[in-house]
Amino acid sequence: MKKTILYRGLAVTAAAVMMTSCSSDYLQTEPITDISDSQAVATTQAAQMSIYGIGRIMNTQNDMGRSHTGETSCLYWINEALGPDNNSYFFMTEMGGSWYRWESMDNQDSSLCKSMWDYCYTIISRANTVLSTIDAAEGTDAERSWVKAQALTLRAHGYIHALQWFGYRWQDSNNGEKYGVVLRTESGSAPAPVVSMNDVLKQVYEDLDSAIGLYQQSGKSRKYEFEPDLNIAYGLYARAALIKQDWKTARTMSANARRDYPVIANEEYMSGFIYNTSDYMWTNGDNDIYYSSFGCWFSCNGSYCANWGAGMNANIDFLRQLDPNDIRLKCFFSPDKVDDIAAIPGYEDVASITEADFWNPENVVAGTMDCNWGGLGKMAEGFVKYAVANNPNSGYANTMPYCRVISGVAETTPSVMNLGSPVKMWSVGVNGTYGDSFFPWMRATEFLLTEAEAAYMDGDIASAKSIITELNSIRIPGYVAPDGEALLEDIRLSRRAELWGEGHCWYDFKRWNLPIEERKWVANDPTSGNTPANFARAHAVNDRNGWRLMIPRAESDFNSGFDRTLMGYADND
Question: Is 58 helix (H, G, I), strand (E, B) or coil?
Answer without folding.
Answer: coil
